[in-house]
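Listing S7. Sequence submitted for prediction.
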Amino acid sequence: MSKRLLVILPLLAVVIVVVSIVFWRAYSSPPIHLQGQIEARQYMVSSKIPGRLAEVNVRRGSAVNVDDLLFRIDSPELEAKLTQIEALDTISRSLAQAVEGGTREEKVAAARSEFEKAQAAEALARSTYERVRSLADQGVVARQRLDEAFTFWQIAQKTRVTAGEILQLAETGPREEARTASRAGEAATTSLRDEVTELLEDTMAHAHHAGVVSNVLLSPGELVPQGFPVVMLTDLDEAWALFNVREDLLAKIPEGAEFELHIPALDHYARFRVTHVAVLGDFATWRATVPGRGFDMRTFEVEMHPVDPVPGLRAGMSVILELQP
């Protein structure tokens, strides 16, 4: 009997353990598996200038750095406008230099010569008048001749005054209003030239962020509308896992908590931290609970960022989160 008991008791213990495991698995709740996917930051590279796409220097999968040239747009209209503005700028600068330089020396010399001639003519007319008046007083010449001499003297005086004003105007140069207008015209053309130059520089689209080219939406020769994205960049260093979670499970995923997520594409487990929880829109996010519980459940968006960089992580990869029931 003792030998039989030694054989039966271990077998009975094994049977009890197996039955217990079967019953535990049959009546215990299985783990909850949530499937999400990897998202990454994307940047759209576009241009303010419409035109025809001249060349694209990248293709999908190309790694680019900041300030790398991605594509170039041809804009003959802007180039023609720049030529016009440069011509206007040359004219305005020349006028400004002429105004700021004052009156030419030749004009001043000519005005001074006219003034001196007027002075000489006035002196001669005065002398002639005095002689004629002396003769008229003696009765030698007629009174009419005296009046003519006086008139010529007055005309010579007025001519000398006019020549003096012209000389003063030539020596003074342009008025301050003319100087202000010339400077304003020069500033306006300079501003227009700078504006068109900056627009032409924008036809050369450079990467404003490092990343990988995820898509090229247009081909060379096609028209590019203003602001249309031609190249899409993805920053793989800024990736996160995104889950859609029912609100009855949010208590298990508090913000700031860390979880081990399975990445099937890499056959790798990585640690992620919950960084953001937000409710989704009202449309198609309500889910009915078991009848009789009296409320519907909404869906929330949960973002998790990797605690440490994960080599090979790409946008679109699936991630699995396991929660205990």
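Caption to Listing S7: primary sequence and predicted structure tokens for the chain studied. The chain has a mean pLDDT of 80. The domain at 29-41+236-323 is CATH 2.40.30.170 (Elongation Factor Tu (Ef-tu); domain 3).
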